[in-house]
Amino acid sequence: MNKVTSLKVVLSAGITLTLSGCFSNTSMIMDATGAKKGELPAFQQPDFTNAQADFRKKLEQYHNTNQMPVDTSSYSSCNLSQKTLQDISGFTIIADLLDTTRKNKDSKKSLTARIGQDASSAAGQDIQQTYHWQGGALYASTIDCQKLTNNSDASNVSFLIDSQYLIKTTGANFNGTHSITEQKHVQRITPDHIVSIGLSSTVMGDDFTKDFGTKLALSLSNLKDPSFIYTYKKGNDQLNMIEAPSSPGIYFTQHFITLNKEEQRIRSYRYTGAVHDGVGRSLNGKAQGLQESFGKYGSNLCFDQGELVQKSDCETF
C-alpha cells in the first residue's frame, strides 16, 4: 500500500465506523452490549494506552469548545485542486465504493442486491444513491502546503481539511430527497505514527423525514451533530475510537490489524465501551470469511469476496 492510499484508508475507515452508532441511543446500546459510559477496552500495547489517553483529552477539548482540538494559528490555506482535496478527504474512495456497489448490484449472490430486492418488493422500486462533491479547503503550514503542491503526498503532512459533499437518494420512499454530509479532519504526523481526528455530520433534506419511521430513526441517530473520530495508525495496527452524538459517553473502538500487506488481509476487533462485541475480516477491501457479532443480538455471517454465502467451513484468518 502506498502512502496516499494508506491515508485514504485511515480517513475512510473512520467515516465507515461512524455509522456503527447510528439508529441507537445510549440506553439501548448499554442493554444490548453491557457497555458502560466512559469505558474503553484494555490493551497491552503502551502505544494504544497513550492513544486512548490522548483521545479522552482531545474529546474533552472538543466538548468544552465545540471546535476541533488543534491550534491552527500557524496554518494557511493551501492552493490545491478540488480533485486533490477529494482524494485527501476520503471522498474519492467513498464514491468509488458506490460505483463498485452499483456495478455489482445485478449479482444474485451479493448482499447489496438482496437488500435492494427486499426494498424493491416492499416499496415498489429500488433505492439509488449518488454522491456530489460540494467543495473543500485544506490548511497547513507554509512548508507543508509546498509539499502538497509539489507532489500531493499527504501522508507526510500535518493539516486540517474541511470538505462537504451531497448525497442524493432516490427511489422507495425517498424520491427526490437528499442529505448533506460534512467532514472535518486533522492529521498529525510523528516519525513513527499518524494521528487523525475527524468530525462527521449529516443533515437530511425535508422530504427525508415524511414518514414516522424515518423521523424516529433520525431522532435516535442525531446525525446533524458530528461524530468525534480519533484514529491512531502505526505499522500494521490502526485504532479507531468514536463518540457518536446518538450515544454520548459510549465509545466505539475498532482495532484493525493488517495481517498480509500484499493481499491486504485485515482482521478487525470491535468494542463498545470496554466490551468486545465482534470480529471482522476483509481481503483487498471486501468482507471475507467469518464476520462475528457478539452480545444480546449477536450473529455470525460468512462472506466470500464481499458476497454473503452459506458455508460450514467459513474462513477465520
From TrEMBL:
This is Lipoprotein. It comes from Marinomonas pollencensis.
